[in-house]
Automatic annotation (TrEMBL):
It comes from Altericroceibacterium indicum. It is a single-pass membrane protein. One of its GO terms (cellular component) is plasma membrane. Keywords: Cell membrane, Chaperone, Membrane, Transmembrane, Transmembrane helix. The chain crosses the membrane at residues 12-29. The lineage of its organism: Bacteria, Pseudomonadati, Pseudomonadota, Alphaproteobacteria, Sphingomonadales. This is Tetratricopeptide repeat protein.
């Protein structure tokens, strides 16, 4: 046993030391990453606060470092906000360029890439050929896709520009019936579908109630209950 200790003691000790150093390095890296994430999150919150205050220059100052050196998710969020700021400043081409940089980056989360594609098309819709709009967004304009409603509305408008009402109408109706779509979007597409002669109403009473609420004629059921 003593011979084994003398023969293998130093190599084993060296392995233990290396393992401890590696573990210590991992702990430091993990702590560093967590600290960096917290710092980046704080910068993003500051940017959002400045955007709410309409202080675009200050917001941009907080977003620039994140757009260049943040994690993929943080970077995508920062660039999306920069694109939104460009739109707010009436710079649609600059906004589309920023959105396209996310859409083309395969390292970015797919949800961000798809949303960036929609935002890019929306920003430059008036300058795009209808078929190009359809080609870019049709894969996203499928029921069940996270951004179905937004993509389908733009594809439907492109179909209208091509005079293909028979394709636009059912698509608008499908969005209007999608309970996961934002209410404002459902209202717009319901009206468009109706104008094209397509039924977009599953529950007439529910829809009439919603239209009254949107028009301010009656309070929403929840609001009425709260008032009592």
């Amino acid at each position: 046993m003593a011979d084994i200790g003398r023969k293998y003691g130093k190599p084993i000790l060296a392995i233990i030391v290396v393992a401890l150093l590696a573990f210590g390095g991992w702990l430091w890296w993990d702590s560093h990453q967590e600290s960096k994430l917290e710092a980046n999150s704080e910068e993003l919150v500051k940017a959002l606060d400045n955007l709410k205050a309409d202080n675009l220059a200050a917001a941009d100052g907080h977003l620039k470092p994140l757009a260049q050196d943040g994690s993929n998710g943080m970077k995508a969020a920062a660039i999306m906000l920069e694109g939104g700021m460009a739109l707010q400043q009436n710079k649609p081409k600059e906004a589309a360029k920023l959105f396209d940089s996310i859409a083309a980056d395969k390292n970015m989360p797919e949800t961000y890439r798809n949303l960036a594609t929609i935002r890019s098309v929306s920003a430059t819709f008036d300058d795009m050929e209808p078929q190009k709009v359809i080609d870019r967004l049709k894969p996203l304009a499928v029921p069940g896709e996270p951004w179905f409603g937004s993509a389908a509305e733009l594809v439907g408008m492109a179909y209208l520009a091509q005079g293909k009402n028979d394709l636009a109408g059912p698509l608008f109706a499908s969005v209007a019936k999608d309970e996961n779509a934002p209410q404002g979007l459902r209202s717009r597409t319901r009206q468009l579908a109706g104008l094209l002669g397509y039924d977009a109403v599953d529950d007439v009473d529910k829809t009439l109630q919603q239209l009254r609420v949107e028009g301010g004629d009656v309070p929403a059921p929840g609001a009425a209950a709260a008032a009592q």
